[in-house]
Amino acid sequence: MKIIKTKNYNEMSENAVNILINEISKKPDLVLGLPTGKTPRKFYKKLSKLCKKNKVDFSKIKTFNLDEYYPISKSDKKSFVYYMFKNFFNKININKSNISLLNGDFKDYKKECENYELKIKKSPIDLQFLGIGINGHIAFNEPGSDKNSKTRLTNLTKETIKKNSNLFNRKRFPKKGLTMGIKTIFSAKKIVLLASGKHKSKAIASMINGKISKGCPASFLRNHKNTIIILDKKAASLLDR
Ligand code: PGA
Question: 164 and 202 in contact (C-beta within 8 Å)?
Fold first, then answer.
């Protein structure tokens, strides 16, 4: 696991952008795994700006998003579909048929998860970007998630629901989510995890220095061959020098 410590949120985002641009220059039809949340906002903003200036080309890129609430309609402003189109997909030259998102509106969620796994098997993810929860979750793989888990329906923890609803003026949120499993995430050739802010420092310390266990799902990444962690100063504040 490689750790990159940066000065601040802007520099963390810049580093992530540079990694992606470098990978796209080597493989223009890269398959990309994407997160939502507060952390990647600047990353998406910077990429959108670069795309507008023709400095990066997404026309051949395929994407898979990590997770979605369940149940939720696509038009719901709280949904990750809404987030992705608003913050990224509507601003870049991606071919819309190359976008894959979990459908939180589909009654047969088991089928939806199976289909997503099959789709990923057919187009394996080259580069997976990730955030981390304050409880060490990755995507909606909350503490207790198995390292062999695949795409499935999960129960969200109270703290995840609370944190997400705070972002939306405490609106009610679904208590479940559809998520790529830990094994699904692990199948990516390269993984880049981003974390910014003091509130992430405990999760980062336990991911890097704690036991590799279900208690901190992000700790499983220590066994992945090609993972980069990009931190800002505050997120790295509980790590040894
Ligand atoms: P955040 O979410 O970027 O909004 O902090 C990260 C996560 O919960 O995975």
Answer: no
